[in-house]
């Protein structure tokens, strides 16, 4: 390290009161934790004079730290691709942008760093601390260091001790690909608490707008009479499946799946690409099936509370919720059964199995495959024969990818898992002797021996829903996940032309 230079930096940071934001995963070991808890202040990030977010920041050792998640979100909105992985914040800029590669101070490959187009620019300290907005541990990084990097890529920044403004020439970085023929307005607005009612209305609107492309099917009904909806997009013989909201408080995964459906349908009609993937060519080979909300009763209870249920059910629902009328941590269906502990793989010996009666989370039910939601999903899988699947959960930013899979299948599954990790920036959960069990993907990979991925989106939020403010950054990471499995399903299809479910 250049000691003189960094003394200068410390002094400068002290004068500016600059703090570092950091975005980190719980598994990120590259950061030091803060003890005691820092003293937070509210700051803001703006892009070309528009406020993007108002993250909490804190001052440590004379410099201001801010959660990197929010900085990534701001750059993503400016169409600057960036990912955080294993202590490296990687920024990719378009080839038409010239950037200043002179006098790069980075000198230690083992420290957290910022890279531009793969080249290390600067090393920086990071701190793991709770993000008060999400109640989750996250990575904070110093604003000062980012201010040394962003001007090199033609993003001007100014920090006044509270407000961090970024300005750039958006025409240079490129707006979202502009439709050349005609504009198709979006149907799904994912930047809100998205309900079962919203979903049903948007599914109808999608089917009406794209009658040749989008088809809908009610695959079952819940105990309280809500539909379990499935939607297909595409015309291909191969199939792939994407599910959202197995768990009630993880409903932001419905926002993601619905927005994905809308974006894929738009791109198909426009004959356009998403991150270089030609959507029509892909979906003419593979029909994608989506179940955007596996657990509509649970999601509705989590979002709306008892008022959305008959009064005769209130006492029982409260009892399963520990006596509380606050259902924001509800995870099960409205019968108090955890739908992702309902599958047979490892069911009798689920590693963490704390309750034996209906409860707001973790109760696996009296026997596997016992709920209407799970039976409906199995019926769909039997009917459509998916070659691969993705099941979205929240939170933590991780990919689970196999349950006790061995041999050649393990290599196949792992190969795809590594590619998905590369696309999303989410790390893979390592193979362990006591993996969680009883989930859809455990059954799918172990019993059915086909590739499947449980993707946990969003920063770690414990027993709370991921705030909607994270949606754009989640979309930025996950927008091509569906196309990824569609492409690979087309190549797997010749050897998977039928399916026989195993229990
Ligand atoms: Zn979950």
Automatic annotation (TrEMBL):
Record has Transferase as a keyword: no
Domain Peptidase M14: from-to ranges: 192-503
GO molecular function: carboxypeptidase activity
Signal peptide: 1-26
Cofactor(s) the record lists: Zn(2+)
Keywords of the record: Carboxypeptidase, Hydrolase, Metalloprotease, Protease, Signal, Zinc
SMART domains in UniProt: Zn_pept
Protein name stated in the entry: M14 family zinc carboxypeptidase
Species for this entry: Alicyclobacillus dauci
């Amino acid at each position: 390290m250049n000691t003189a230079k960094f003394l200068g930096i410390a002094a400068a940071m002290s004068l500016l009161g600059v703090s570092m934001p950091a975005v980190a995963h719980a598994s990120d070991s590259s950061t030091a934790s803060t003890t005691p808890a820092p003293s937070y202040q509210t700051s803001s990030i703006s892009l070309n004079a528009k406020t993007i977010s108002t993250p909490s920041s804190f001052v440590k050792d004379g410099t201001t730290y801010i959660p990197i998640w929010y900085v990534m979100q701001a750059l993503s909105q400016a169409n600057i691709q960036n990912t955080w992985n294993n202590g490296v914040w990687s920024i990719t800029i378009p080839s038409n942008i010239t950037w200043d590669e002179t006098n790069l101070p980075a000198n230690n490959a083992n420290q957290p760093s910022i890279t531009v187009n793969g080249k290390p620019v600067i090393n920086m300290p990071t701190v793991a601390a709770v993000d008060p907005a999400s109640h989750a541990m996250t990575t904070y990084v110093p604003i000062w260091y980012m201010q040394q990097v962003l001007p090199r890529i033609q993003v001007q920044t100014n920090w006044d001790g509270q407000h961090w403004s970024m300005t750039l020439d958006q025409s240079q970085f490129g707006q979202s690909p502009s439709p050349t023929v005609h504009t198709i307005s979006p149907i799904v607005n994912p930047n809100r608490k998205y309900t079962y009612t919203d979903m049903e209305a948007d599914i109808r609107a999608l089917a009406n707008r794209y009658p040749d492309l989008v088809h809908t099917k009610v695959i079952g009904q819940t105990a309280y009479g809500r539909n379990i909806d499935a939607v297909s997009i595409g015309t291909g013989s191969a199939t792939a499946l994407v599910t959202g909201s197995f768990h009630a408080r993880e409903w932001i995964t419905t926002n993601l799946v619905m927005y994905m459906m809308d974006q894929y349908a738009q791109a198909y009609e426009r004959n356009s690409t998403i991150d270089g993937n030609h959507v029509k060519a892909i979906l003419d080979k593979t029909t994608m099936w989506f179940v955007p909300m596996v657990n509509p009763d649970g999601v509705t209870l989590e979002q709306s509370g008892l008022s959305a249920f008959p009064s005769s059910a209130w006492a029982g629902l409260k009892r399963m919720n520990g006596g509380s009328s606050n259902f924001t941590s509800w995870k099960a269906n409205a019968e108090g059964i955890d739908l992702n502990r309902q599958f047979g793989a490892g069911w009798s010996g689920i590693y963490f199995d704390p309750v034996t009666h209906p409860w707001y989370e973790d109760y696996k039910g009296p026997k596997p495959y016992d709920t209407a939601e799970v039976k409906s999903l199995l019926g769909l899988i039997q009917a459509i024969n998916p070659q691969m699947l993705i099941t979205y959960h929240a939170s933590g930013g991780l990919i689970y990818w196999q349950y006790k899979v061995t041999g050649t299948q393990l290599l196949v599954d792992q190969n795809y898992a590594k590619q998905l990790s590369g696309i999303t920036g989410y790390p893979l959960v390592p193979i362990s002797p006591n993996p969680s069990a009883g989930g859809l993907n455990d059954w799918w990979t172990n019993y059915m021996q086909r590739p499947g991925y449980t993707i946990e989106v969003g920063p770690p939020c414990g027993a709370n829903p991921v705030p909607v403010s994270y949606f754009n950054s989640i979309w930025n990471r996950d927008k091509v996940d569906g196309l990824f499995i569609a492409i690979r399903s087309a190549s797997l299809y010749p050897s998977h032309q039928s399916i026989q479910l195993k229990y």
